[in-house]
Write a structure and sequence with these properties.
Blueprint (H helix, E strand, L loop, with lengths): L5 H27 L6 H28 L7 H27 L7 H23 L9 H29 L3 H35 L1
Length: 207
């Protein structure tokens, strides 16, 4: 099998990050224009994006199995791919929970957090675009810090949302459902930060 160019790996990451942006934007759109009658269709659209990301992840893993020389350590390349894939899994997980808990309306707090997840995914894509230049990049570290900041903001929004839920929630089943949805929204931001942490580790190892 012909050797994959180094750009194959980095292009794969950019493609996966772009799919994460698409998923986050779809999540925000679902929340802002919520229609319980259409949630199954929206779930299928989200799954199509997540499935496309799975294919990119498998393509990279297949390449690693046969590669003799790689631009970074094999374990780091695989960890980056897995970390990006997890972001897509978590975003899909939010919509799955809205679907199977039969949520009928969206809390305003959830829309605000969804926007933060979208911001994090956009910054994550910019980070992947910049990753090939990790040795001399002047913006890579700024993007890592930007994602860390967004995650911290999402954490604060999550805490406030959970507080509002438990103070104002009247229906125990609705409280249970929203606890799960909010948790997965917070996981989305955490997973974006994890991607940034992997980049930090790669830079430290190769500087």
């Amino acid at each position: 099998m012909a050797k994959k160019p180094d750009s194959f790996y980095f292009d794969n990451y950019v493609a996966c990050a772009d799919l994460a942006v698409q998923a986050a934007e779809l999540l925000t759109k679902i929340f802002e224009n919520f229609d319980p009658a259409k949630i199954h269709d929206m779930l299928e659209k989200m799954h199509a994006i997540e499935h496309a990301a799975d294919k990119k992840h498998h393509e990279l893993e297949d390449a690693l199995l046969t590669a003799f020389i790689t631009p970074l350590e094999r374990e780091d390349l695989d960890l980056m791919s897995c970390s990006l894939d997890t972001v897509l899994d978590r975003i899909e997980g939010v919509v799955q929970r809205v679907y199977f808990t039969n949520i009928q309306s969206i809390h305003p707090d959830a829309i605000v957090i969804a926007h933060k997840v979208t911001d994090a995914c956009r910054a994550m894509k910019d980070l992947m675009v910049e990753l090939p230049n990790y040795r001399k990049s002047k913006t890579l570290r700024k993007l890592v810090i930007q994602i860390n900041t967004i995650e911290s903001e999402a954490d604060e929004l999550y805490i406030n949302a959970m507080r509002n839920l438990h103070v104002n929630g009247k229906d125990p089943l609705e409280v249970i459902a929203w606890r799960d949805v909010y948790a997965f929204l917070e996981y989305c931001a955490d997973c974006c930060e994890n991607v940034a942490d992997v980049v930090d580790s790669i830079v430290m190892k190769n500087s």
